[in-house]
Amino acid sequence: MAVLFLNQFFDVFHAAHNYIEKLKEEREMYSRLINMMRLLFS
Q1: What is the C-alpha to C-alpha distance for residues 34 and 28, in angstroms, rounded to an integer?
Q2: Sequence-ordered list of residues with C-beta below 8 angstroms from that of 3, at least 6 positions apart, any chain
Q3: What pLDDT, in 10s, does the model give residues 3-25?
Q4: Looking only at Cα atoms, what is the longest distance across the chain?
Q5: Distance CA 42, CA 40 (A)
């Protein structure tokens, strides 16, 4: 029972970690885009 719970916990943790990593990458991409726009329009 405890093993099953741990397994589920790790699945959720892993999914959350992947989601956060993806968000970070997207945020970096957007900030690069915004910086480029600033350079173009300044």
Answers
A1: 10
A2: none
A3: 999 999 999 999 999 999 999 99
A4: 61
A5: 6
pLDDT at 1 over 90: no
φ, ψ dihedrals at 5, nearest 5°? -60, -45
Q: Which residue has the tokens 């991409």?
A: 29
Query: CA separation (Å) from 30 to 8, 20, 22, 23, 24?
Result: 33, 15, 12, 10, 10
pTM of the model: 0.60
Q: Tokens 């992947």 sit at which residue? A: 18
